[in-house]
Amino acid sequence: MNDYIIATAWKGGARRENRDWKRFTYGIRIRKPDRDTLFSRTWSYVELIIEDKYRIRVEITDSFWRKCSELRHEFFKHYFREKEFNPWPKRKPTKIHARTCKG
């Protein structure tokens, strides 16, 4: 498997009154059609390659298959800061190019 995906940056978990970037959970949102064709419900994790440079193993949660098609990992918090993607304009999250390499 070596499928390319274009995901969008995602953050969640901080209260509206507290916008401190350190309090958010970060990840990437996978489009549902990509989720349904490129991921298997039998997988408990997926390995992603970001920019053909970073390889990370991300747990697939049960909510991934319901309404929340995000893959969350501590890596993204630092990656988004390093690339100056955070903060992104409201309702216009940065696009992230990735490859799935194992599930």
Structural overview:
This protein is α+β, with helices and mostly antiparallel strands and 103 residues long. The chain has one domain (3-102). The protein contains two helices and six strands. It has a six-stranded antiparallel beta sheet, with helices on one face. The longest helix has 9 residues, at 74-82. The protein is globular. The termini are close together.
How would you summarize this macromolecular structure in one to three sentences?
The protein is an alpha+beta fold.
Share of helix among residues? 10-25%
From the helix content, strand content and strand pairing, which structural class follows? alpha+beta
Described by strand count, sense and barrel closure, the largest sheet is:
6 strands, antiparallel
**Beta fraction:** 35-45%
N to C succession of SSEs? EEHEEEHE
Gross morphology is: globular
Runs with pLDDT <50, length 5+? none
Number of strands: 6
Radius of gyration: 13 Å
Total count of domains = 1
Strand order in space, largest sheet: 4-3-6-1-2-5
